[in-house]
Amino acid sequence: MTERTILIADDDRAIRTVLAQALGRAGYNVRATSSAATLWRWVEDGEGDLVITDVVMPDENGLDLVPRIRRVRPELRVVVMSAQSTFATALKAAQRGAFDYLPKPFDLKDLLSLVQRALAAPATATEEDGDGPEEERLPLVGRSAAMQEIYRTVARLTTTDLTVMITGESGTGKELVARALHDYSRRRSGNFVAVNMAAIPRDLIEAELFGHERGAFTGAMARGIGRFEQAAGGTLFLDEIGDMPPEAQTRLLRVLQEGEFTTVGGRTPIKANVRIVAATHRDLRQAIRAGVFREDLFYRLNVVPIRLPPLRERAEDIPLLARHFLDRAKAAGLPAKSLDNEAVERLKAHPWPGNARELENLMRRLAALYPQEVIGEDAVAAELMEAEAVQGAPAAPAMPETLEQAVERHLTTFMSAQRDGLPVRDLYERVLAEVERPLLRLALANTRGNQIKAAAMLGLNRNTLRKKIRELELPVVRGLS
Description:
DNA-binding; transcription regulation; AAA_lid_NorR; transcription; ATP-binding
């Protein structure tokens, strides 16, 4: 096999030496330089099978070299290294045509694995897409290893229309990632439409997503445009997808399979020209096992999974995030503040059950309520102790919410939404169906799909149960032991 040559450009002699030794031991021929000009001359002369370049060099920015290399030698892979490990660097590297981005410091095993992948990858054309965003406008903040991997993934995805599933606890920034996928993609000129599945009454979700024709249901006095049409040419963000009812899941699956949909009450297919980004804080695999989420839909949505780590798993990002949120508070008109070292350490020791959202709220409180310009540990500790007391307060002596109270609360919320002219007729039957669905679904889940046992549990005749399963279109998992 012909020896492959790797061209390295970095103004740090120690890095050049370490890389040359590691790659040499792996069987590669290595040429290393401290200047972009020398690297460019080698590329123009047809040398090298792979380029590894730093961003900051004395004579030229390494990122500016990438599109030039891609134009003269489109088959030549370029890996970009940088100590400026931000979303901007990863995004610019991807958009200018780099094969990958490697944040410093890195493990040599990761580098060797990346080199193998780059040399084995087939040649592809990569669109050059401008200079990317300004640093201060970036939606994603943090330099931890976990965030670096997210930056790299999001940067790659901005050049595709692949469906993405974002998972993470509440407050981790799932919508921020979804917006970044849209704002820095080829679809950014289209609309970004966000829908929270948990906030829509279940029997209105299909009309909300796909629209409806006049007369499709009681109260539909005119044609309604759904979110799929609103997002045409852009991105549709389906938040809390785990709360989508089974009937809407079936219809969404059909759209993902066929690439088109019909409105409620309509017959003419409409092309679904949207990129789907879904998000959830739930464990959807557990929901699949419980029979409340379709497995085939899960795999259609989970093409590229992105897990957002909770803040407690990336405590090293807290100082940067705190500074970012204080700057945002200042931009919103609050006094300029900073934190002393002891205050920062106290923040890093907090478990942050509310994640970045909780940290942002704390920074806004500190900026608004404390007169000193430099916030100390005492102020931070006082605010966190109050928050911890609220979060740790026991539920008792308050009594648990009864089923009747829960139903009344949900109906109150539903009826308050009728100001929009939505249908309120046949409410009795609809409410009974809403209660029947989860009751039957849970009974079947608890009896592992055994309808005889489920009917006995519910006190129903088996034929009656089978009829209701058909009427409510409930998925039934059979044959489980």
